[in-house]
Amino acid sequence: MKLLFIVNEPAFFISHRLPIALAAHRQGYAVHVASKSGEDVKKITDSGLIHHEIPLSRSGSNPFVELISLFKIWWLLVCLKPEIVHLVTIKPVLYGGIAARFTSVKKIVAAVSGLGTLFLAQGFIAKVKYYIGALLYRLALSASKTTVILQNPDDKEMLLKLGAMKTEQAILIRGSGVDLSNYPFTPENTIEQVSITFAARLLFDKGLAEYIDAIKVLNSRGVDANYQLVGDLDAGNLTSASLNDLDEWGKIPNLNVLGYKKDIAGVFKGTNLVVLPSYREGLPKVLIEAAACGRAVVTTDVAGCRDAITPGITGLLVPVKDSIELADAIQTLIENPKQRIAMGKAGRALAEEAFTIERVISQHLSIYSEVLS
Fold it and tell me: What's the confidence (pLDDT) of residue 132?
């Protein structure tokens, strides 16, 4: 049986889907991966998987270029003739879902890992994008041979409201899983200055501006803490911070701009609290990783983020785009180490119960076997 993953970036496939693909490979599937080119392609092929290069731009909007991408995906499906196509990230889900309807593919698995802010923006242009997006999701997901994997119930309700799918097509899987052996529980260091970490792509949609503003508020209050900004710029995203932003933030007292760090578990080992004030998510992997490492979190009461924690038990929820409430919640956990440590321990228990990579792999393999039967 041929199983084809289609994803934008090879790096994203490595970090979010490789364990699932390898488990399917061990079960006898011939696993193929289609993505853009990149240095991580070698990691894919070294793992025994077959790679196909396709032209995909995450933020491109040139209609001619986008039609070429759609055609290339359709042509790959026609030539390869996979039994199952697993689509990951927005453009592969939309273009792959539409293309696969007009091929011999037996089953489409569409992993909707978040609807972003497309259906939340205001204004005339946003409304136009809303209707175009709704139409594309209907075309991509409504075929009876499509199973839609969602990470939170809000996204499920949104797609049902749009008429993009039927209830029986939807399956909820909470995130992409975490290998607990790579994210061990470590006790907090409560002797040194408390350390607060934001770890994500440096996008304003992740609540970056609110985090910076909250640091300024806490500094003005004289709160004794160290703040970290861990993550890389994303030139392909319209909401990415800039190099000028990083230069300005580097001047803020008590804030360390660390850039991209591969060893997030190592970062969290020296962290007391993880903060992600995002506007909307599928189910953010960084909050799962924080829980696995035994770290309390502060995040926003929005789709995806609230589904990654047990509010009041493993972390605190704050209103979206509210720097003062964010600062208050951070200060509460800085000044209450017993509460923070208890939340971290509860977070590890939650990760062991709901977010293990073994659990996620089992759910995906079950979907593959069910859709073929």
Answer: 83
Mind giving me the DSSP string for 250-282?
Answer: TTSTTEEEEE--S-HHHHHHT-SEEEE--S--S
pLDDT tens-digit map of 74-89 = 999 999 999 999 999 8
> Which superfamily does CATH assign the domain made up of 195-354 to?
Glycogen Phosphorylase B; (3.40.50.2000)
Which region, left, alpha or beta, applies to residue 213 given φ > 0 means left and ψ of -120 to 50 means alpha? alpha
CB atoms within 10 A of CB 134: 18
Find the mean pLDDT for residues 139-150: 94
Question: Could you tell me the residue ranges of all domains in the chain?
Answer: 2-177+356-372, 195-354
Instruction: Name the E strands within the chain.
Output: 2-7, 30-35, 50-53, 84-88, 107-112, 146-150, 170-172, 195-199, 226-230, 255-259, 273-276, 296-300, 315-318
Dist CA 373 CA 367 (whole Å): 10
Q: How far apart are CA 325 and CA 323, in angstroms?
A: 6
Q: Which two tokens stand for residue 61?
A: 């909007």
3-state secondary structure of 210: helix
Q: Is the pTM of this model over 0.85?
A: yes
Q: By the 8 A CB rule, do 16 and 176 touch?
A: yes
Domain 2-177+356-372 has CATH 3.40.50.2000: yes
Is the pLDDT confidence value at 242 over 80? yes
The Cα–Cα gap between 150 and 115 comes to 10
CB atoms within 10 A of CB 124: 7
Q: Residues for the chain: how many in total?
A: 373
- Determine the Cα–Cα distance for residues 142 and 148; give it in Å rounded to an integer: 10
Share of the chain above pLDDT 90, in %: 83
Is it true that 2-177+356-372 and 195-354 share their CATH fold? yes
pLDDT at 186 over 80: yes
